[in-house]
Amino acid sequence: MSIVVRDVREHELDSVLALNNAAGPAILPLDAARLRRFFDHAEYFRIAERDGTMAGFLIGLASTAEHDSSNFRWFHERYPDFFYIDRIVVASRRRGGGVGRALYADAQSYSELRYPQMACEVFLEGANDPVLLFHGSFGFREVGQHVMPGSGIRAAMLMKSLCSYPWVRETYGDALPDTPWILQPRQAPAAQHRPTGTA
Questions:
Q1: Quick one: which of 56, 76, 93, 115 could link to 48 by a disulfide (CB 3.0–4.6 Å)?
Q2: 155 occurs within a structural domain
Q3: Pfam families per the record (predicted)?
């Protein structure tokens, strides 16, 4: 069956929370209040459905977002403009079935019109070679490592240059066409979105 990627809906937050907190040590746990802040403020918050069931989700933020993650701050201190993937989670029974690639492809389609790079991190604790390989096969490269305060978890900090961005920026500047597939994927209730096409 096909994978459908769409905006998250408010009534699905409990399911998103359960999916996140069942993901294991490769994903930091969430509580309901923090997840609600993502729902209210994240620029990008979409889920993937397979066979009509939630199979995964991805949360992304602009480099200008107010976000207390030390990993986000690491990128913010070094790069002026990027789209940050705070977390991607795929249900254990759906891993290896293309859900992660569908979410990343959708996030890239959104971000390459607005940002020169995508950023994310992969924890280096445990057996995370498949996750690093996945990101490498999707074009991410390690640009450094960061040890998270408090937890001591070491993360590989990954960046991917978005090759379409320079052309889009040169051709359209601050005025992307008013076409449905280009619009913001969601309008978070309290978000302060960057204007469409603004660098």
A1: 56
A2: yes
A3: Acetyltransf_1
Whether 148 maps to a domain, the answer reads: yes
Spatial separation of the C-alpha atoms in residues 145 and 79, rounded to whole Å? 15
Tokens 């992307």 belong to: 176
- Give domain status of residue 193, yes or no: no
Give the residue from 81, 115, 117, 118 showing the smallest Cα distance to 103: 118
Q: Read out DSSP for 8-40?
A: --GGGHHHHHHHHHTS-TTS----HHHHHHHHH
Is the pLDDT confidence value at 192 over 50? no
- Supply the CATH number for residue 164's domain: 3.40.630.30
The amino acid at residue 77 is E
What confidence tier does 170 reach under pLDDT thresholds 50, 70, 90? very high
pLDDT bin (cut points 50, 70, 90) of residue 96 is low
Is 71 exposed, middle or buried, given 0-12, 13-18 or 19+ CB atoms closer than 10 A?
Answer: buried
Give the list of residues 6+ apart from residue 11 with CB closer than 8 angstroms, or none: none
Q: What is the pLDDT of residue 186?
A: 58
Q: Which residues span the domain enclosing 7?
A: 3-173
